[in-house]
């Protein structure tokens, strides 16, 4: 049908059109408008389909070519910020799916392999052309980076520094993907890496990539792990664990981590704690996935770990996704012989829909570095001379340890504030970090504000210094 079918068929008199028109107007989106985030309708049945099937109908109708949008990422950003997703009808199947998630384990040992076969096994040709040379299928770290490759290399370096890797250490990579991190850590830090994945295609490419390195890649469920490692890392895998398995996941990590070990978790997170997943994403992209919330992670990890570092760089996810989209479109001529036109529209829709979400307040991306399990001596105490004993306090002085989230360097700062509501002594890391967090004790919560001040010199390996330094103001004790 013509892209101007709405006008040609006088759909202004149709009830379905009027409802959609009024909803989109709340997000300042026009039907057949000229702005990049406006939509162009090619099929008059689009309006009824969206109102009846909600998010699933919106995505499927795009895959079928019923509507177009020049900038889907901007479209979804406006839709989410205006809350339109809450005004669309929820299909009965969605309600039943959420109920099933509460009653059954959708990520059981048997079902955990589904996402590997349906998404990660789509084809190494697709992912090798779309992703960076390290084949990192998670958010890049864009400060000091102009390209996707540099952003992902910066993230790999940051992860290795946060883990404080040393030659000869053993590293477990839970959900190792195509082996990019395993290869990088083994090559640049001299560690022995053990990686596990549930994707046969990922294992095949990861083994080839890591030839010549002290790296082992196995096709294995994380629940079957029972070894001992100095360090454990998990990047972009926790989204497939599922709420019913969060406690099991951290039990497994604690069981496999040595007494003085460190664990780093990098995952996409949700601001709202629930089991609801977008039905289109669940059906076509990541079956049985679920974005964890801070509450989910805190509750499941608390019996085993103490959080030492929380680094939120969700704003970089939009740029990462759009870089993937650009590479996917550029590679399509080489890929289209193996994939259909409908697949092309599906994958482009997926990347742009996700790109629109992090810029809205619904989704953020964070890294989480945990210390050794509770009851064990913390790994960093002997190496960096930071005491983890209870801090002695007086009305005139108190001591707070801090950690640089970029280079993992620890500082022991001291202040002479009459109470913890007052501004304490300012410290700053010159490695280029944009945030520094308290390490211990947990009774202080930092409030970070940017400020160009001089601070203690960081002697650790550092990235180029272009970011402002930071000033720390601990809040009221908790």
- Report the order of strands and helices: HHEHEHHHHHEHEHEEHEHHEHHEHEEEEE
Q: What is the mean pLDDT?
A: 76
Estimate the global geometry from the Cα principal axes.
globular
Biggest sheet strand order reads: 5-4-3-6-7-9-8
Q: Alpha-carbon distance between the termini?
A: 63 Å
Count, helices: 16
CATH superfamily of the largest domain: Vaccinia Virus protein VP39
Question: Which structural class matches the secondary elements?
Answer: alpha/beta
Largest sheet, described in full?
7 strands, mixed
- Total number of distinct structural domains: 3
Please state roughly what percent of the residues sit in beta strands, choosing from under 5%, 5-15%, 15-25%, 25-35%, 35-45% or over 45%: 15-25%
Regarding CATH, which class of the largest domain? Alpha Beta
Summarize the model shown.
It is built from 16 helices and 14 strands.
Task: Provide tags for this entry.
alpha/beta, 3 domains, three-stranded antiparallel beta sheet, 37% helix, 17% strand, disordered C terminus
């Amino acid at each position: 049908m013509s892209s101007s079918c709405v006008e040609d068929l006088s759909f202004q008199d149709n009830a379905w059109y009027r409802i959609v028109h009024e909803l989109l107007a709340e997000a300042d989106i026009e039907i057949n408008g000229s702005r990049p985030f406006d939509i162009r309708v090619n099929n008059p049945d689009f309006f009824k389909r969206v109102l009846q099937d909600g998010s699933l109908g919106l995505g499927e109708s795009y895959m079928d070519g019923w509507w177009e949008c020049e900038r889907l990422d901007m479209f979804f950003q406006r839709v989410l910020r205006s809350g339109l997703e809450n005004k669309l009808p929820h299909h009965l199947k969605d309600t039943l799916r959420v109920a099933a998630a509460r009653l059954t384990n959708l990520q059981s040992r048997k079902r955990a392999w589904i996402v590997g076969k349906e998404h990660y096994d789509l084809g190494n040709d697709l992912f090798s052309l779309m992703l960076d040379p390290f084949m990192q299928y998670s958010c890049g770290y864009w400060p000091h980076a102009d390209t996707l490759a540099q952003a992902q290399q910066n993230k790999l370096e940051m992860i290795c520094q946060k883990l404080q890797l040393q030659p000869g250490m053993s590293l477990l990579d839970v959900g190792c993907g195509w082996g990019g991190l395993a290869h990088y850590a083994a090559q640049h830090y001299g560690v022995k890496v053990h990686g596990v994945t549930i994707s046969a295609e990922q294992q095949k490419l990861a083994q080839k990539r890591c030839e010549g390195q002290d790296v082992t890649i196995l096709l294995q469920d994380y629940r079957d792990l029972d070894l001992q490692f100095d360090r454990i890392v998990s990047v972009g895998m926790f989204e497939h664990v599922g709420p019913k398995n969060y406690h099991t996941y951290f039990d497994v990590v604690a069981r496999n981590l040595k007494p003085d070990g460190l664990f780093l978790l990098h995952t996409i997170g949700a601001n709202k704690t629930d089991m609801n997943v977008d039905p289109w994403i669940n059906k076509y992209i990541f079956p049985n996935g679920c974005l964890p919330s801070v509450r989910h992670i805190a509750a499941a990890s608390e019996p085993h770990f103490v959080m030492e570092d929380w680094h939120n760089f969700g704003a970089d996810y939009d740029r990462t996704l759009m870089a993937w989209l650009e590479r996917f479109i550029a590679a399509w001529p080489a890929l289209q012989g193996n994939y259909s036109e409908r697949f092309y529209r599906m994958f482009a829709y997926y990347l742009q829909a996700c790109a629109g979400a992090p810029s809205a307040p619904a989704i953020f991306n964070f890294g989480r570095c945990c210390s050794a399990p509770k009851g064990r001596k913390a790994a960093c105490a002997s190496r960096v001379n930071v005491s983890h004993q209870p801090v002695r306090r007086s009305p005139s002085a108190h001591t707070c340890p801090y950690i640089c989230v970029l280079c993992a360097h620890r500082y022991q700062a001291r202040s002479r504030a009459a109470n913890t509501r007052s501004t304490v002594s300012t410290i700053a890391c010159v490695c280029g970090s944009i945030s520094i967090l308290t390490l211990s004790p947990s009774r202080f919560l930092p409030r970070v504000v940017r400020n160009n001040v001089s601070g203690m010199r960081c002697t650790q390996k550092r990235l180029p210094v272009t970011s402002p330094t930071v000033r720390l103001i601990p809040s009221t004790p908790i």
